[in-house]
């Protein structure tokens, strides 16, 4: 599958402000950048630095006045996405060092609070079967409701309120997976099936020796997803961090499958 | 300075249980392992994996019955520890990629809540001078009180209650530093001046192009500290994670300067 | 049923300290005090004031050194306890003024967070049938585990962790009832079936024009309960508030059915 | 002082919905209702019930479609408002029974978390002098910023973020007063100096044998305030509780001094 991605962002700044941007699709084994172009208006220079796990990049820049950015890319997705139910858990003592931090609780994913719940509801399952059951439970029990969550909302809040957006669905899945001692992280992605069109977020779980994309909203099969970056949770992969005051002007995200 | 470290741990397990141990002092440019010996009793084998930022190691093992571990090391500390007040902040858009995650909130360090407080109380300062002022404020306003915090206690709780142990002092410092947009992380360490003797924890801040140790408890100057590992907060560098049930039997930590 | 209640409390105080005690069984229509005796040692005087809703009393006193209190009572319980499932909800606009505050969230019962959950899981039921379903769900899904909760633990924490003691079971029931717009409050009580013997706590719900006792732990039928006091949650009916420092010396609670 | 109060509310309901309204100024010793008129459009009937502490009323009603309410009143304020600094604390063991619940933590006022802070910062003061110092500290350290708080925001959140609206200022004052063992409650009020014109909220503290109004926002002297109702915190005295879905249509509040 080939995705055509077009993004436009505009913010008004009242003084020189540091920005950290993470919107470029990553060039990876399972997703190839065929074409990619990012442009800023009136920004003298910027610095691209590797993002978490060296998966994709972040861009540091300093802007003033009207900040405008356009990004266009064509990405070929060539991802074998096995049925998650068939995947085996990796025994804990065989987990690679770089997966360990994704067993631990993070800002929005306090997995340490959920061990009893996970043991009671999903403790009879293991590995991919357990993840699939958690994903299906979230999909069935939660409502996709824009506007009910904000930058303080954690997976614990979402778990209680049973509603949220893609960010919240991913946080709950990541949290419950970690509580089941399966490494799980948060992925910021593009996907064509998202309604309304926007940046999207899904979970990644470490099973059978690799990371696998899982979307509890049911919006985007793994074969259709272009990853931007990964991290412990949404705190690590915001599409834009503004270190100062800014007024929103405009934003559009378009993702089309050829 | 040369430190002699001796640790003994014992836990009773009722079934085969995965353990993740992080107690070995790291071998680094500014701290040289002269001697190091770790022993387990009745544990057939174990796996050492790199810890976060490849700074030090974690050990995976599977144990049953009485788990006992002894660790002894001699570590030469050769750290130039400049007065933190003299260190310059690195402009945000010049921060290396691998420091960015330490600008972001984490499980115990919800720095996103503290921007107004930091701006109001410490906004007139920059860089190392700002960190020193934060450190001195914590040292003056907080009481070192064992037993008031637990595994759920965040920097926000400690900030309100103004008491805690080394873990909590480090969390508050890390949180306020991040709110001031200075990368900060949590270090699990050995230090000779800790009373009562125990594992210790301090903050690390990124200033002038490097990481610098800062201890808000005032117990341990940077020149006397042997680092075990670093991470976003205490969730990332527990000395022992037990993935199951265990009964505490014994623990001793001794750190002596030669 | 006649209950024989014997309580002994002892605390060591290091300076003159205000205490607020709420341990006397209330004399009510459905529970008659046959005999009641409270004694303090070395406390010059004390003041009995009405407790919340004028149901029972609190005792203010000022003590120093070793504070000892003994309380003995015989209470005749004559309570018709209908099957909660048969009780009708009172339409909201017909609720008496003094029940309204028990519709609202309180310190340990943030019912405002649970409206979606209650609507999804129990929204097909009304009144007593809804309360019975909530009670049975808590009883089935939660484990009675002493020591996992503390004075900060809210119903939200307990809901996530699915464990706790009588206080926590009552908080969750009160919270979910309020989220279902049924007035609910917390009752501090004595009951003979509590293991280990201790002060007990249950919920009260307002149905069919009266308050009805409901115990989600399953330990104590309504016919066997002697009420001490009621309030919004545990914050309102602690058996002892100590306004200062005190060391626990001893406590015993005995409740026997004649 | 005589206040002229005019309120208009309009909400669109999609089905018959229970509403609980608390907007009528109370008729009290220190504020006399000279004139008062409330009208609903297309609401067949309603029930007035006493509010908390029998101070003022709440109105239950059931409405459908466009709900409109107009309220007009003239209130004569005749309140002797002594300098709060001159008021003596009532010794705890002499507090009346009906003030005790206002010593306890509530939904938005977790005073149990703030004892160390209050002791450290305000522990050298007593009674009204302590309340005045707390009020002045809040006034100086906090920013009045509409839109940063919502229905979940507690005094702990506001304390950390140091910003909010009248509700939040009152919550912090109530919380710190209770942590200082001075009974404190939340009052929903009208006052002429509020900018922009709206319902207002202040704290009440129990000193010298009576309740005294204190406004940490500095907007409204006690002599200019008309009380609607009181309660543990904002959860108890919302001007409107809607038990169902509603769309906001219009709201205006005008308070003018003759």
TrEMBL record, chains A, B, C, D:
<dbReference type="Pfam" id="PF01841">
    <property type="entry name" value="Transglut_core"/>
</dbReference>
<dbReference type="InterPro" id="IPR002931">
    <property type="entry name" value="Transglutaminase-like"/>
</dbReference>
<protein>
    <submittedName>
        <fullName>Transglutaminase</fullName>
    </submittedName>
</protein>
<feature type="domain" description="Transglutaminase-like">
    <location>
        <begin position="158"/>
        <end position="218"/>
    </location>
</feature>
<dbReference type="InterPro" id="IPR038765">
    <property type="entry name" value="Papain-like_cys_pep_sf"/>
</dbReference>
């Amino acid at each position: 599958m080939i995705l055509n991605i077009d993004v436009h962002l505009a913010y008004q700044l009242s003084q020189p402000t540091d920005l950290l941007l993470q919107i470029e699709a990553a060039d990876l084994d399972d997703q190839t950048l065929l074409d990619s172009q990012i442009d800023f208006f009136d920004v003298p220079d910027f610095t691209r630095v590797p993002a978490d796990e060296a998966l994709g990049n972040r861009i540091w820049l300093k802007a003033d006045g009207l900040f405008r950015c356009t990004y266009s890319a064509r990405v070929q997705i060539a991802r074998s996405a096995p049925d998650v139910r068939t995947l085996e858990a990796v025994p804990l003592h065989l987990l690679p060092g770089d997966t360990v931090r994704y067993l631990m609780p993070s800002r929005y994913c306090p997995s340490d609070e959920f061990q009893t719940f996970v043991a009671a509801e999903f403790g009879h399952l293991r590995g991919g079967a357990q993840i699939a059951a958690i994903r299906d439970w979230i999909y069935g029990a939660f409502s996709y409701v824009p506007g009910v969550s904000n930058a303080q909302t954690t997976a614990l809040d979402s778990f209680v309120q049973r509603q949220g957006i893609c960010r919240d669905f991913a946080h709950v899945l990541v949290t419950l997976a970690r509580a089941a001692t399966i490494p799980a992280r948060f992925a910021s992605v593009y996907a064509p099936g998202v309604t309304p069109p926007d940046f999207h977020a899904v979970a990644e779980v470490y099973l059978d020796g690799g990371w696998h994309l899982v979307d509890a909203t049911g919006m985007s099969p793994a074969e259709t997803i272009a990853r931007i970056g990964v991290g412990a949770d949404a705190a690590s992969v915001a599409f834009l961090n503004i270190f100062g005051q800014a007024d929103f002007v405009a934003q559009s995200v378009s993702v089309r499958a050829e």
